[in-house]
Each structure stands twice: as structure tokens, then as C-alpha cells.
Amino acid sequence: DLDNCPQAKPAAEANRQDPQLVAALATLALRDNDLDKARAALARAPDEIADAASLLLIEAQLASRAPADEAGKQLDAIEGRAASLPPDQAGRVFSALASVRLGLGQPDAAERLWKRALEKNPEDPRLRWTLFELARERGDLAAMKSFSAEIANASGPTSPQARVAKAGTLIQGVREAQKKKLARDQTVLELSADDQLAIDEARNLLIEAENDRPGWAQVQQLFADVAGLRGDLPAAIDS
After folding, report:
1. Quick one: average pLDDT of 15-24?
2. How far, in Å, are 73, 99, 114 from residue 66 at the CA level?
3. pTM of the model
């Protein structure tokens, strides 16, 4: 109680000028699931630090727990305030907002925000990989090809990331071919010679990636996809 402890006021006021300390107080409140206390901690922050990246990240967490319509408005406002931050900080906030949007079932908005983060931080390989993974989850072959090429250019064509991205793109291409067969009411979905070649190439790329980066879960997931396309259910389960 600052009124009963006046000597503490200068220290408390100094602390309010430090966005990291304000963020720490709000984070502790969030861990206790006390949303009102977290909002109060942010509300007490002076205007000059209100748009600090650490505080905007807390606001994004709070927005994610609001009703959908209200959350959208709050996230839009946070995005606007983050735009003037230094590139690395703006990228962090955009990336966090993208994760929230994806959690709200808004993949288009998530993709747009991750692209904004990449524009701010074009050397960050994690952002390209995140965008590739989002495209893979959405089954967007064109986007997968684009981001796969960017990953290869940025990290080198023989890097594990480039090999896995190319393997994933090849696998998605085979899936697209299978979908076209279904659309023509084909009851037997046999792999064409081109499909077999694509799957073989994808598997070889995954083997090379696994040698360079053993234990990477993404490699095993794609091995399972290869086995599934070949109709080898035990191998898919094993991967």
C-alpha cells in the first residue's frame, strides 16, 4: 500500500517506467489466471512505454482470451501500434499476433502477419519455415513451392531445412495428383510413374536431412506421409 508506505513511492514510480518489470507483473497475473490484475498492471504503465514490445506481447495474450469479435479489434489495434517499433521488435509482435490469429482459426490473417514479420526481419529463417509449415498444413502447393525456394536460397539447397521443404512439396504434389484422380471418380488410386519418382526423391531427401539433423520430428512426419502414400500402414505408424 503506497499510501501507508510513502518512502516506497519513488521506487514504485521508477519501476513503472521499466516495461520489463511491468510485463513481469502482468505475466505473473496471467499465470494465476487473473486477467483483471494483468490488465490493471498494463493500464498503470505510463504512455511513453505503453507500446513497448514486451507489453504489446502481453496485450496479445489477453486479447486471445477475449470473445472473437472483441479479440479481433484488439489484435488490429496492437498490430497498428507495433508497426512503428524497431524491425526486430515489430517482427516479434507480428509473429505473436500471427500465432494468436491462427489459434482463433484465422489462417489468412496469420499468414499476412508472418509475412509482415518477415518483411521486418528478412534474415530470420524461422519465419520462412513457419510460413512453409502453414502452407503445408493448408495444402497450398503453390505457396509451398514458393517458400521452399526461398528456404533453399536463404539456407542453401543442401541444408536440412531446404531438403525437408522440398520433400514436403514433392509429397504435396503427389497428394494433389491423387485428388485429381478422385475427382474423376477413379476407385483405384494407383501411383503413376511420376508419382513414384517424386516419392522416391522425397524419401532420399528426408534420409539426407535426417543424417544432418537426427531426431527432427518433421522428418519422421514426412517419412510417415511417404509410407502412407505407398500404402505401407505399418511403416507410417512406426514413423
Report:
1. 78
2. 10, 15, 22
3. 0.81
